[in-house]
Design a protein that fits this description.
Chain A is built from 11 helices and 13 strands. By secondary structure, chain A is an alpha/beta fold. In chain A, the strands form 3 sheets. In chain A, strands 5-6-7-3-8-9 form a 6-stranded mixed β-sheet, sandwiched between helices. Chain A has a 4-stranded antiparallel β-sheet with strand order 11-12-10-13. The longest helix of chain A is centred in the middle third of the chain and has 15 residues. Chain B is an all-alpha fold. Chain B has 15 helices and no strands. Chain B is globular, with a radius of gyration of 24 Å. Classes of the chains: A alpha/beta, B mainly alpha. The interface between A and B is medium-sized, with 37 and 33 residues.
Protein backbone atom coordinates (compact mmCIF):
# COMPACT_ATOMS: atom_id res chain seq x y z
CA UNK A 1 0.00 0.00 0.00
CA UNK A 2 1.27 3.41 -0.87
CA UNK A 3 1.72 5.73 2.05
CA UNK A 4 0.25 8.73 0.25
CA UNK A 5 -1.73 8.74 -2.95
CA UNK A 6 -3.06 11.93 -4.50
CA UNK A 7 -4.87 12.47 -7.76
CA UNK A 8 -5.74 15.95 -8.93
CA UNK A 9 -5.26 17.39 -5.46
CA UNK A 10 -6.36 21.00 -5.59
CA UNK A 11 -6.91 23.74 -3.07
CA UNK A 12 -7.92 27.33 -3.66
CA UNK A 13 -8.31 30.31 -1.36
CA UNK A 14 -10.71 32.57 -3.19
CA UNK A 15 -9.10 33.22 -6.56
CA UNK A 16 -5.67 32.21 -5.29
CA UNK A 17 -4.76 28.66 -6.31
CA UNK A 18 -2.48 27.22 -3.62
CA UNK A 19 -2.33 23.64 -4.85
CA UNK A 20 -3.03 23.19 -8.55
CA UNK A 21 -3.75 19.56 -9.32
CA UNK A 22 -1.04 17.45 -7.73
CA UNK A 23 -0.69 13.79 -8.68
CA UNK A 24 1.48 11.96 -6.24
CA UNK A 25 2.37 8.51 -5.00
CA UNK A 26 4.66 8.09 -2.03
CA UNK A 27 5.77 4.58 -1.11
CA UNK A 28 6.61 3.64 2.46
CA UNK A 29 10.18 3.69 3.69
CA UNK A 30 11.13 6.90 1.89
CA UNK A 31 12.49 10.19 3.15
CA UNK A 32 11.17 12.86 0.86
CA UNK A 33 12.40 16.41 0.69
CA UNK A 34 9.62 18.73 -0.44
CA UNK A 35 11.35 21.83 -1.71
CA UNK A 36 9.70 24.98 -2.92
CA UNK A 37 9.81 28.76 -2.68
CA UNK A 38 7.65 30.57 -0.15
CA UNK A 39 4.03 30.45 -1.15
CA UNK A 40 4.54 27.51 -3.52
CA UNK A 41 1.86 25.47 -1.77
CA UNK A 42 4.07 23.20 0.35
CA UNK A 43 2.32 23.84 3.63
CA UNK A 44 -1.12 23.76 2.02
CA UNK A 45 -0.36 20.37 0.47
CA UNK A 46 0.92 19.09 3.80
CA UNK A 47 -2.14 20.46 5.60
CA UNK A 48 -4.34 18.52 3.19
CA UNK A 49 -2.32 15.36 3.86
CA UNK A 50 -2.68 15.93 7.61
CA UNK A 51 -6.43 16.47 7.44
CA UNK A 52 -6.17 20.09 8.53
CA UNK A 53 -7.79 21.57 5.47
CA UNK A 54 -10.52 20.46 3.05
CA UNK A 55 -9.49 19.97 -0.58
CA UNK A 56 -10.69 18.97 -4.02
CA UNK A 57 -9.49 15.85 -5.78
CA UNK A 58 -8.60 12.45 -4.42
CA UNK A 59 -6.26 11.93 -1.52
CA UNK A 60 -5.56 8.84 0.56
CA UNK A 61 -3.05 8.72 3.36
CA UNK A 62 -2.32 5.24 4.76
CA UNK A 63 -5.58 4.11 3.20
CA UNK A 64 -7.68 6.81 4.86
CA UNK A 65 -9.29 10.05 3.79
CA UNK A 66 -7.45 12.59 5.93
CA UNK A 67 -10.27 15.15 5.99
CA UNK A 68 -12.96 12.82 7.31
CA UNK A 69 -10.76 10.65 9.52
CA UNK A 70 -8.13 13.00 10.94
CA UNK A 71 -8.28 11.70 14.48
CA UNK A 72 -7.87 8.07 13.43
CA UNK A 73 -5.16 8.99 10.94
CA UNK A 74 -3.20 10.75 13.66
CA UNK A 75 -2.59 7.40 15.35
CA UNK A 76 -0.25 6.62 12.48
CA UNK A 77 0.91 10.07 11.49
CA UNK A 78 3.08 12.50 13.42
CA UNK A 79 3.64 16.10 12.64
CA UNK A 80 6.18 18.71 13.65
CA UNK A 81 6.08 22.19 12.24
CA UNK A 82 7.58 25.46 13.27
CA UNK A 83 4.03 26.73 13.64
CA UNK A 84 2.61 23.69 15.45
CA UNK A 85 4.14 24.88 18.66
CA UNK A 86 3.81 23.26 22.01
CA UNK A 87 1.65 25.43 24.28
CA UNK A 88 3.78 27.70 26.41
CA UNK A 89 1.94 27.02 29.64
CA UNK A 90 2.38 23.25 29.61
CA UNK A 91 4.93 21.45 31.79
CA UNK A 92 7.29 18.91 30.27
CA UNK A 93 5.85 16.18 32.48
CA UNK A 94 2.34 17.16 31.40
CA UNK A 95 3.21 16.76 27.72
CA UNK A 96 4.32 13.20 28.51
CA UNK A 97 1.16 12.53 30.55
CA UNK A 98 -1.09 13.93 27.88
CA UNK A 99 0.43 12.18 24.87
CA UNK A 100 0.59 8.92 26.84
CA UNK A 101 -3.05 9.44 27.72
CA UNK A 102 -4.41 10.03 24.24
CA UNK A 103 -1.98 8.20 21.97
CA UNK A 104 -2.25 4.42 21.76
CA UNK A 105 1.16 4.05 20.14
CA UNK A 106 3.18 6.25 22.47
CA UNK A 107 6.04 4.62 24.35
CA UNK A 108 6.60 6.76 27.39
CA UNK A 109 9.81 5.04 28.47
CA UNK A 110 11.29 5.76 25.06
CA UNK A 111 10.41 9.46 25.31
CA UNK A 112 11.89 9.62 28.81
CA UNK A 113 15.03 8.01 27.38
CA UNK A 114 15.37 10.68 24.70
CA UNK A 115 14.75 13.43 27.24
CA UNK A 116 17.39 12.00 29.56
CA UNK A 117 19.98 12.79 26.89
CA UNK A 118 19.01 16.46 26.99
CA UNK A 119 19.18 19.06 29.73
CA UNK A 120 15.40 19.48 29.76
CA UNK A 121 13.95 19.29 33.27
CA UNK A 122 10.69 17.44 33.76
CA UNK A 123 9.29 20.23 35.93
CA UNK A 124 10.02 23.05 33.47
CA UNK A 125 7.31 24.77 31.54
CA UNK A 126 7.66 25.07 27.81
CA UNK A 127 7.94 28.87 28.09
CA UNK A 128 11.07 28.41 30.20
CA UNK A 129 12.82 26.33 27.52
CA UNK A 130 14.96 27.67 24.68
CA UNK A 131 13.72 27.23 21.13
CA UNK A 132 16.18 24.40 20.62
CA UNK A 133 15.00 22.62 23.74
CA UNK A 134 11.36 22.91 22.64
CA UNK A 135 12.33 21.27 19.35
CA UNK A 136 14.16 18.53 21.28
CA UNK A 137 11.10 17.96 23.46
CA UNK A 138 8.77 17.83 20.49
CA UNK A 139 11.10 15.44 18.70
CA UNK A 140 11.36 13.22 21.79
CA UNK A 141 7.57 13.02 21.94
CA UNK A 142 7.25 12.26 18.25
CA UNK A 143 10.06 9.71 18.10
CA UNK A 144 8.44 7.75 20.93
CA UNK A 145 5.32 7.33 18.81
CA UNK A 146 5.28 4.27 16.61
CA UNK A 147 3.97 6.12 13.55
CA UNK A 148 4.09 5.22 9.89
CA UNK A 149 4.33 8.72 8.50
CA UNK A 150 6.15 11.69 9.94
CA UNK A 151 5.60 15.12 8.45
CA UNK A 152 8.15 17.81 9.23
CA UNK A 153 7.32 21.31 8.02
CA UNK A 154 10.35 23.54 8.54
CA UNK A 155 11.10 21.69 11.78
CA UNK A 156 14.44 23.36 12.36
CA UNK A 157 13.51 26.95 11.57
CA UNK A 158 15.29 29.30 13.92
CA UNK A 159 17.54 26.61 15.41
CA UNK A 160 21.31 26.96 15.37
CA UNK A 161 23.42 24.66 13.24
CA UNK A 162 24.34 22.29 16.10
CA UNK A 163 20.70 21.68 16.98
CA UNK A 164 19.82 21.21 13.32
CA UNK A 165 22.55 18.62 12.84
CA UNK A 166 21.55 16.84 16.03
CA UNK A 167 17.90 16.92 15.02
CA UNK A 168 18.46 15.09 11.72
CA UNK A 169 21.01 12.74 13.28
CA UNK A 170 18.57 11.52 15.92
CA UNK A 171 15.86 11.25 13.34
CA UNK A 172 18.00 9.02 11.14
CA UNK A 173 19.70 6.96 13.82
CA UNK A 174 16.96 6.53 16.40
CA UNK A 175 13.80 6.73 14.38
CA UNK A 176 13.88 6.03 10.70
CA UNK A 177 13.42 2.50 9.44
CA UNK A 178 12.09 0.91 6.29
CA UNK A 179 8.50 0.87 7.59
CA UNK A 180 8.31 4.58 8.12
CA UNK A 181 8.00 7.46 5.74
CA UNK A 182 9.24 10.96 6.41
CA UNK A 183 8.31 14.09 4.48
CA UNK A 184 10.36 17.15 5.25
CA UNK A 185 10.28 20.69 3.98
CA UNK A 186 13.11 23.07 4.71
CA UNK A 187 14.96 26.02 3.26
CA UNK A 188 18.27 24.57 4.42
CA UNK A 189 18.31 22.02 1.62
CA UNK A 190 22.09 21.39 1.67
CA UNK A 191 21.86 20.03 5.19
CA UNK A 192 19.47 17.25 4.30
CA UNK A 193 20.69 16.30 0.85
CA UNK A 194 22.46 13.19 2.20
CA UNK A 195 19.50 12.25 4.32
CA UNK A 196 16.88 12.12 1.57
CA UNK A 197 15.86 9.17 -0.57
CA UNK A 198 13.65 11.32 -2.79
CA UNK A 199 13.37 14.93 -3.74
CA UNK A 200 10.32 16.79 -4.90
CA UNK A 201 10.17 20.38 -6.16
CA UNK A 202 6.95 22.26 -5.88
CA UNK A 203 6.29 25.58 -7.53
CA UNK A 204 3.06 27.56 -7.95
CA UNK A 205 1.04 24.68 -6.60
CA UNK A 206 2.44 22.07 -8.98
CA UNK A 207 5.09 19.41 -8.62
CA UNK A 208 7.79 20.30 -11.11
CA UNK A 209 10.30 17.60 -10.21
CA UNK A 210 9.92 14.26 -8.48
CA UNK A 211 12.82 11.84 -8.47
CA UNK A 212 14.74 9.49 -6.22
CA UNK A 213 18.21 10.50 -5.12
CA UNK A 214 19.75 7.64 -7.16
CA UNK A 215 18.02 9.02 -10.21
CA UNK A 216 19.08 12.50 -9.19
CA UNK A 217 22.72 11.45 -8.95
CA UNK A 218 22.76 9.69 -12.30
CA UNK A 219 20.62 12.15 -14.20
CA UNK A 220 22.00 15.53 -13.24
CA UNK A 221 25.56 16.63 -13.67
CA UNK A 222 27.24 19.94 -13.06
CA UNK A 223 30.33 20.87 -14.98
CA UNK A 224 32.84 23.56 -14.10
CA UNK A 225 33.70 24.20 -17.70
CA UNK A 226 37.23 25.06 -18.77
CA UNK A 227 37.10 28.60 -20.19
CA UNK A 228 38.08 27.51 -23.70
CA UNK A 229 35.32 24.87 -23.90
CA UNK A 230 32.35 27.03 -22.89
CA UNK A 231 30.93 27.48 -26.39
CA UNK A 232 31.20 23.76 -27.04
CA UNK A 233 29.57 22.96 -23.71
CA UNK A 234 26.64 25.21 -24.50
CA UNK A 235 25.81 23.16 -27.59
CA UNK A 236 25.00 20.21 -25.28
CA UNK A 237 21.91 22.10 -24.06
CA UNK A 238 22.59 22.76 -20.40
CA UNK A 239 19.45 23.49 -18.39
CA UNK A 240 21.20 26.21 -16.45
CA UNK A 241 24.33 28.27 -16.48
CA UNK A 242 25.90 30.41 -13.80
CA UNK A 243 29.19 32.19 -13.19
CA UNK A 244 31.29 31.62 -10.12
CA UNK A 245 34.62 33.44 -9.77
CA UNK A 246 34.64 34.04 -13.50
CA UNK A 247 34.11 30.40 -14.38
CA UNK A 248 31.03 29.03 -16.04
CA UNK A 249 29.19 26.29 -14.28
CA UNK A 250 26.73 24.45 -16.49
CA UNK A 251 24.05 22.07 -15.31
CA UNK A 252 23.00 19.17 -17.54
CA UNK A 253 20.03 16.88 -17.43
CA UNK A 254 20.72 13.37 -18.75
CA UNK A 255 23.89 14.25 -20.63
CA UNK A 256 26.57 11.65 -21.26
CA UNK A 257 29.11 11.82 -18.41
CA UNK A 258 32.13 10.85 -20.45
CA UNK A 259 31.30 13.58 -22.95
CA UNK A 260 31.01 16.08 -20.09
CA UNK A 261 34.27 14.99 -18.50
CA UNK A 262 36.14 16.34 -21.49
CA UNK A 263 34.73 19.82 -20.86
CA UNK A 264 35.89 20.27 -17.27
CA UNK A 265 35.28 19.02 -13.72
CA UNK A 266 32.07 17.00 -13.45
CA UNK A 267 30.21 16.72 -10.16
CA UNK A 268 26.73 16.00 -8.82
CA UNK A 269 24.92 19.29 -8.32
CA UNK A 270 23.49 20.27 -4.98
CA UNK A 271 19.70 20.16 -4.65
CA UNK A 272 19.77 23.90 -4.18
CA UNK A 273 21.55 24.47 -7.50
CA UNK A 274 19.16 22.18 -9.35
CA UNK A 275 16.28 23.93 -7.66
CA UNK A 276 17.46 27.28 -8.95
CA UNK A 277 17.84 25.76 -12.44
CA UNK A 278 14.39 24.19 -12.48
CA UNK A 279 12.36 26.76 -10.57
CA UNK A 280 14.48 29.90 -10.71
CA UNK A 281 13.07 32.60 -12.86
CA UNK B 1 4.74 -5.87 9.19
CA UNK B 2 3.89 -9.41 10.37
CA UNK B 3 0.35 -10.36 11.34
CA UNK B 4 1.45 -10.76 14.93
CA UNK B 5 2.87 -7.28 15.03
CA UNK B 6 -0.37 -6.07 13.51
CA UNK B 7 -2.37 -7.74 16.26
CA UNK B 8 -0.17 -6.19 18.93
CA UNK B 9 -0.51 -2.78 17.33
CA UNK B 10 -4.25 -3.16 16.99
CA UNK B 11 -4.86 -3.95 20.65
CA UNK B 12 -3.85 -0.57 22.16
CA UNK B 13 -5.43 1.11 19.15
CA UNK B 14 -8.76 -0.01 20.60
CA UNK B 15 -8.29 2.66 23.21
CA UNK B 16 -11.63 3.69 24.55
CA UNK B 17 -13.12 6.98 23.45
CA UNK B 18 -13.29 8.00 27.08
CA UNK B 19 -9.51 8.22 27.47
CA UNK B 20 -8.94 11.08 25.01
CA UNK B 21 -11.91 12.83 26.59
CA UNK B 22 -10.56 12.37 30.11
CA UNK B 23 -7.13 13.72 29.11
CA UNK B 24 -8.68 16.59 27.17
CA UNK B 25 -10.48 17.63 30.34
CA UNK B 26 -7.23 17.33 32.33
CA UNK B 27 -5.61 19.56 29.72
CA UNK B 28 -8.30 22.22 30.27
CA UNK B 29 -7.65 22.13 34.01
CA UNK B 30 -3.89 22.49 33.44
CA UNK B 31 -4.32 25.39 31.09
CA UNK B 32 -7.12 27.23 32.90
CA UNK B 33 -6.23 26.91 36.52
CA UNK B 34 -8.83 29.53 37.44
CA UNK B 35 -11.39 26.73 37.12
CA UNK B 36 -10.36 25.37 40.51
CA UNK B 37 -8.22 28.17 41.90
CA UNK B 38 -11.17 30.60 41.68
CA UNK B 39 -13.66 28.56 43.75
CA UNK B 40 -10.98 27.43 46.22
CA UNK B 41 -9.68 30.97 46.72
CA UNK B 42 -13.22 32.32 47.20
CA UNK B 43 -13.89 29.57 49.75
CA UNK B 44 -10.71 30.38 51.65
CA UNK B 45 -11.38 34.12 51.62
CA UNK B 46 -14.94 33.68 52.79
CA UNK B 47 -13.89 31.32 55.55
CA UNK B 48 -11.23 33.75 56.74
CA UNK B 49 -13.79 36.57 56.75
CA UNK B 50 -16.24 34.46 58.67
CA UNK B 51 -13.63 33.52 61.28
CA UNK B 52 -13.07 37.22 61.96
CA UNK B 53 -16.77 37.80 62.62
CA UNK B 54 -17.07 34.68 64.72
CA UNK B 55 -16.08 36.49 67.91
CA UNK B 56 -19.31 38.53 67.80
CA UNK B 57 -21.52 35.48 67.44
CA UNK B 58 -22.31 34.75 71.15
CA UNK B 59 -23.38 38.37 71.61
CA UNK B 60 -25.57 38.33 68.50
CA UNK B 61 -27.20 35.09 69.50
CA UNK B 62 -28.12 36.53 72.88
CA UNK B 63 -29.84 39.41 71.07
CA UNK B 64 -31.62 37.01 68.75
CA UNK B 65 -33.05 34.97 71.60
CA UNK B 66 -35.50 37.79 72.32
CA UNK B 67 -36.78 38.05 68.71
CA UNK B 68 -39.52 36.21 66.90
CA UNK B 69 -38.76 33.10 64.86
CA UNK B 70 -38.97 34.90 61.50
CA UNK B 71 -36.35 37.49 62.41
CA UNK B 72 -34.17 34.83 63.98
CA UNK B 73 -34.24 32.88 60.78
CA UNK B 74 -33.45 35.90 58.61
CA UNK B 75 -30.42 36.75 60.73
CA UNK B 76 -29.08 33.22 61.10
CA UNK B 77 -29.14 32.30 57.42
CA UNK B 78 -27.14 35.38 56.37
CA UNK B 79 -23.66 33.77 56.29
CA UNK B 80 -24.98 30.64 54.59
CA UNK B 81 -26.71 32.67 51.91
CA UNK B 82 -23.68 34.86 51.46
CA UNK B 83 -21.38 31.86 51.08
CA UNK B 84 -23.66 30.34 48.44
CA UNK B 85 -24.08 33.70 46.66
CA UNK B 86 -20.35 34.38 46.54
CA UNK B 87 -19.53 30.97 45.13
CA UNK B 88 -22.31 31.21 42.55
CA UNK B 89 -20.95 34.57 41.46
CA UNK B 90 -17.52 32.97 41.12
CA UNK B 91 -19.08 30.20 39.08
CA UNK B 92 -20.64 32.64 36.63
CA UNK B 93 -17.48 34.73 36.33
CA UNK B 94 -15.12 31.79 35.86
CA UNK B 95 -17.52 30.21 33.35
CA UNK B 96 -17.72 33.38 31.26
CA UNK B 97 -13.96 33.94 31.26
CA UNK B 98 -13.25 30.29 30.59
CA UNK B 99 -15.75 29.88 27.76
CA UNK B 100 -14.57 32.96 25.91
CA UNK B 101 -10.94 31.86 26.17
CA UNK B 102 -11.46 28.15 25.50
CA UNK B 103 -10.99 28.12 21.72
CA UNK B 104 -9.30 31.48 21.52
CA UNK B 105 -6.16 30.57 23.48
CA UNK B 106 -5.20 27.52 21.43
CA UNK B 107 -5.35 29.61 18.28
CA UNK B 108 -3.60 32.58 19.85
CA UNK B 109 -0.54 30.58 20.93
CA UNK B 110 -0.82 28.44 17.77
CA UNK B 111 -0.79 25.26 19.82
CA UNK B 112 -3.94 24.14 18.01
CA UNK B 113 -1.79 22.37 15.43
CA UNK B 114 -0.05 20.46 18.20
CA UNK B 115 -3.40 19.35 19.64
CA UNK B 116 -4.59 18.47 16.17
CA UNK B 117 -1.49 16.39 15.53
CA UNK B 118 -2.75 13.91 18.12
CA UNK B 119 -5.53 11.37 17.69
CA UNK B 120 -8.21 13.42 19.42
CA UNK B 121 -11.24 14.41 17.37
CA UNK B 122 -12.61 17.93 17.24
CA UNK B 123 -15.82 16.62 18.78
CA UNK B 124 -13.98 15.19 21.79
CA UNK B 125 -12.17 18.50 22.24
CA UNK B 126 -15.38 20.53 22.04
CA UNK B 127 -17.18 18.21 24.47
CA UNK B 128 -14.24 18.37 26.88
CA UNK B 129 -14.32 22.16 26.77
CA UNK B 130 -18.11 22.24 27.18
CA UNK B 131 -17.88 19.93 30.17
CA UNK B 132 -16.02 22.60 32.12
CA UNK B 133 -18.99 25.01 32.55
CA UNK B 134 -21.57 22.22 32.35
CA UNK B 135 -20.10 19.65 34.72
CA UNK B 136 -16.72 20.43 36.29
CA UNK B 137 -17.48 23.91 37.61
CA UNK B 138 -21.00 23.14 38.93
CA UNK B 139 -19.62 20.13 40.76
CA UNK B 140 -16.72 22.11 42.25
CA UNK B 141 -19.00 24.97 43.27
CA UNK B 142 -21.48 22.62 44.97
CA UNK B 143 -18.65 20.95 46.87
CA UNK B 144 -17.26 24.32 47.95
CA UNK B 145 -20.64 25.69 49.09
CA UNK B 146 -21.61 22.55 50.93
CA UNK B 147 -18.22 22.47 52.62
CA UNK B 148 -18.41 26.18 53.50
CA UNK B 149 -21.92 25.90 54.94
CA UNK B 150 -20.91 22.92 57.01
CA UNK B 151 -17.82 24.74 58.24
CA UNK B 152 -19.88 27.81 59.17
CA UNK B 153 -22.39 25.66 61.01
CA UNK B 154 -19.84 23.61 62.93
CA UNK B 155 -17.67 26.61 63.81
CA UNK B 156 -20.74 28.53 65.01
CA UNK B 157 -21.85 25.58 67.10
CA UNK B 158 -18.39 25.23 68.56
CA UNK B 159 -18.17 28.91 69.53
CA UNK B 160 -21.68 28.93 71.00
CA UNK B 161 -21.05 25.81 73.04
CA UNK B 162 -17.76 27.32 74.20
CA UNK B 163 -19.59 30.37 75.52
CA UNK B 164 -22.15 28.17 77.23
CA UNK B 165 -25.08 28.96 74.92
CA UNK B 166 -27.57 26.60 73.39
CA UNK B 167 -27.05 25.65 69.76
CA UNK B 168 -30.67 24.73 69.29
CA UNK B 169 -31.48 27.86 67.22
CA UNK B 170 -28.68 27.06 64.80
CA UNK B 171 -29.84 23.55 64.06
CA UNK B 172 -33.40 24.72 63.62
CA UNK B 173 -32.70 27.59 61.23
CA UNK B 174 -29.70 26.27 59.33
CA UNK B 175 -30.40 22.63 58.54
CA UNK B 176 -27.20 21.69 56.77
CA UNK B 177 -28.41 18.70 54.79
CA UNK B 178 -31.47 20.48 53.49
CA UNK B 179 -29.38 23.52 52.53
CA UNK B 180 -26.95 21.25 50.68
CA UNK B 181 -29.80 19.68 48.78
CA UNK B 182 -31.33 23.00 47.81
CA UNK B 183 -28.04 24.51 46.76
CA UNK B 184 -27.19 21.48 44.63
CA UNK B 185 -30.61 21.59 43.04
CA UNK B 186 -30.38 25.28 42.30
CA UNK B 187 -26.88 25.06 40.80
CA UNK B 188 -27.63 22.03 38.69
CA UNK B 189 -31.00 23.20 37.41
CA UNK B 190 -30.51 26.93 37.00
CA UNK B 191 -26.77 27.60 36.80
CA UNK B 192 -26.10 24.56 34.67
CA UNK B 193 -29.03 23.24 32.67
CA UNK B 194 -31.01 26.46 32.34
CA UNK B 195 -27.92 28.54 31.54
CA UNK B 196 -26.47 25.93 29.15
CA UNK B 197 -27.30 27.92 25.97
CA UNK B 198 -25.39 30.92 27.35
CA UNK B 199 -22.28 28.78 27.82
CA UNK B 200 -22.85 27.33 24.37
CA UNK B 201 -23.06 30.83 22.90
CA UNK B 202 -19.86 31.95 24.63
CA UNK B 203 -17.97 28.84 23.47
CA UNK B 204 -19.23 29.45 19.95
CA UNK B 205 -18.05 33.07 20.03
CA UNK B 206 -14.67 31.90 21.29
CA UNK B 207 -14.37 29.51 18.34
CA UNK B 208 -15.66 32.02 15.82
CA UNK B 209 -14.32 35.49 16.69
CA UNK B 210 -10.78 36.16 15.58
CA UNK B 211 -10.34 38.74 18.29
CA UNK B 212 -12.35 40.89 20.71
CA UNK B 213 -14.35 37.93 22.00
CA UNK B 214 -15.89 39.95 24.83
CA UNK B 215 -17.26 42.46 22.40
CA UNK B 216 -18.68 39.78 20.13
CA UNK B 217 -20.15 37.91 23.07
CA UNK B 218 -22.19 40.77 24.45
CA UNK B 219 -22.54 43.40 21.76
CA UNK B 220 -24.84 41.41 19.42
CA UNK B 221 -27.22 40.75 22.31
CA UNK B 222 -27.30 44.42 23.22
CA UNK B 223 -27.61 45.43 19.58
CA UNK B 224 -30.51 43.04 18.99
CA UNK B 225 -32.40 44.47 21.95
CA UNK B 226 -31.59 48.01 20.91
CA UNK B 227 -32.68 47.46 17.29
CA UNK B 228 -35.92 45.92 18.38
CA UNK B 229 -36.60 48.90 20.61
CA UNK B 230 -35.92 51.36 17.79
CA UNK B 231 -37.75 49.50 15.02
CA UNK B 232 -40.76 48.14 16.84
CA UNK B 233 -40.61 49.94 20.16
CA UNK B 234 -40.91 46.60 21.90
CA UNK B 235 -38.53 44.81 24.24
CA UNK B 236 -39.35 41.15 23.77
CA UNK B 237 -35.74 40.15 23.20
CA UNK B 238 -34.49 42.00 26.25
CA UNK B 239 -37.38 40.61 28.29
CA UNK B 240 -36.57 37.14 27.07
CA UNK B 241 -32.90 37.46 28.02
CA UNK B 242 -33.80 38.82 31.44
CA UNK B 243 -36.25 36.02 31.91
CA UNK B 244 -33.70 33.42 30.91
CA UNK B 245 -30.90 34.95 32.98
CA UNK B 246 -33.27 35.34 35.89
CA UNK B 247 -33.69 31.62 35.99
CA UNK B 248 -37.02 31.32 34.24
CA UNK B 249 -40.39 31.22 35.91
CA UNK B 250 -40.86 30.85 39.62
CA UNK B 251 -42.04 27.34 39.10
CA UNK B 252 -38.81 26.36 37.39
CA UNK B 253 -36.68 27.54 40.24
CA UNK B 254 -36.89 30.60 42.41
CA UNK B 255 -34.01 32.98 42.19
CA UNK B 256 -33.16 36.23 43.86
CA UNK B 257 -33.72 34.74 47.27
CA UNK B 258 -32.11 31.48 48.23
CA UNK B 259 -34.83 28.89 48.79
CA UNK B 260 -33.41 27.85 52.09
CA UNK B 261 -36.66 27.87 54.04
CA UNK B 262 -38.72 25.48 52.03
CA UNK B 263 -38.51 22.34 49.99
CA UNK B 264 -41.64 23.15 48.03
CA UNK B 265 -39.60 24.75 45.27
CA UNK B 266 -38.02 21.45 44.41
CA UNK B 267 -40.13 20.50 41.44
CA UNK B 268 -37.69 18.71 39.17
CA UNK B 269 -40.38 17.03 37.08
CA UNK B 270 -42.11 20.28 36.40
CA UNK B 271 -38.78 21.87 35.58
CA UNK B 272 -37.70 19.09 33.26
CA UNK B 273 -41.02 19.36 31.43
CA UNK B 274 -40.49 23.05 30.66
CA UNK B 275 -40.24 23.49 26.86
CA UNK B 276 -37.83 26.39 27.37
CA UNK B 277 -35.33 24.03 28.95
CA UNK B 278 -35.36 21.73 25.96
CA UNK B 279 -35.22 24.57 23.48
CA UNK B 280 -32.15 25.69 25.44
CA UNK B 281 -30.60 22.25 25.09
CA UNK B 282 -31.24 22.36 21.36
CA UNK B 283 -29.57 25.77 21.11
CA UNK B 284 -26.63 24.58 23.19
CA UNK B 285 -26.15 21.58 20.91
CA UNK B 286 -26.33 23.84 17.84
CA UNK B 287 -23.72 26.24 19.26
CA UNK B 288 -21.39 23.37 20.15
CA UNK B 289 -21.81 21.77 16.73
CA UNK B 290 -20.96 25.11 15.13
CA UNK B 291 -17.90 25.43 17.35
CA UNK B 292 -16.77 21.95 16.32
CA UNK B 293 -17.22 22.78 12.66
CA UNK B 294 -15.32 26.05 13.02
CA UNK B 295 -12.44 24.35 14.80
CA UNK B 296 -12.31 21.75 12.07
CA UNK B 297 -12.62 24.02 9.04
CA UNK B 298 -10.64 27.06 10.00
CA UNK B 299 -7.37 27.17 8.10
CA UNK B 300 -4.31 26.82 10.26
CA UNK B 301 -2.44 30.09 10.06
Amino acid sequence: MACIEARGLRKTFGTNVAVDGIDLRVEEGRIIGLIGPNGAGKTTALNAILGLTPYQGELTVLGRDPWTARDQLMRDVCFISDVAVLPRWIKVSQTLDYVAGVHPRFDRAKAEGFLAKTTIKRTSKVKELSKGMVAQLHLALVMAIDAKLLVLDEPTLGLDILFRKQFYDSLLNDYFDRNRTIIVTTHQVEEIQDVLTDVMFIDRGRIVLNCSMEEFDSRYAEVVVNPDRVAEARTLKPIHERQVFGRSILLFDGADRSQLAALGDVRTPSIADLFVAVVGR
Amino acid sequence: MSTQANAVAAAPAEIKEIRPFYWSVRRELWEHRAIYVGPLAATAVFLAGFLITLGRLPHEMRELAAMDSMSQHDRIVVPYDMAAGLLMLVQILVSVFYCLDAFQSERRDRSILFWKSLPVSDRTTVLAKASVPLAILPFLIIVCIVFLQLAILLLSALVLSGSGQSTELLWRHAPWFRMALLVSYHILMVHTLWYAPFYGWLLFVSAWARRATYLWAFLPLLAAGFLEKILFNTAHFADFLTYRLGGGTDSVAPVGRMPIDTMTHLTPLHFLATPGLWIGFGLTAAFLAAAERLRRYREPS
